[in-house]
Design goal:
This protein is of the alpha/beta class and about 110 residues long. The chain is about 45% helix and about 15% strand. The chain has helices at about 25-40, 55-60, 80-105; strands spanning about 15-20, 45-50, 65-70. α2 (about 55-60) links the parallel β2 (about 45-50) and β3 (about 65-70).
Length: about 110
């Protein structure tokens, strides 16, 4: 990917993953297993997550780089168009926060 860079401060590659929910169910458990596997190969991982929850606690326990980047479900099928647009604006705000955190972590 063109935006991937290895920080000059570290010879280790870094990957920032993004999770759309904060619980510790299948996808996030698999993500943590992937992070463990990548660490064994010298790749440092961080995780952006939507907010407080079991995933945030596990990220903290493991000492991983993290960023709270709230994301609303702007595709919810039963939501009104007004609600979907509001959720989409919220998601864009979270994306700006995520971009700033990623830039700070991997200058």
């Amino acid at each position: 990917h063109p935006s991937f860079r290895i920080s000059p401060m570290s010879a280790r590659p870094r990957i920032l993953f993004v999770s759309q929910y904060g619980a510790l169910f299948g996808a996030n458990r698999s993500l943590l297993a992937l992070v463990d596997g990548l660490a064994a190969h010298g790749i440092e991982s961080g995780i952006a997550y939507p907010g407080a929850g079991a995933l945030a606690e596990e990220i903290s326990r493991r000492g991983l780089f993290s960023c709270a980047a709230p994301v609303a479900d702007w595709t919810a099928s039963r939501a009104t168009l007004r609600r979907k647009l509001s959720n989409l604006r919220w998601t864009f705000a979270g994306a700006r926060r995520l971009r700033a955190a990623a830039a700070a972590w991997n200058p």
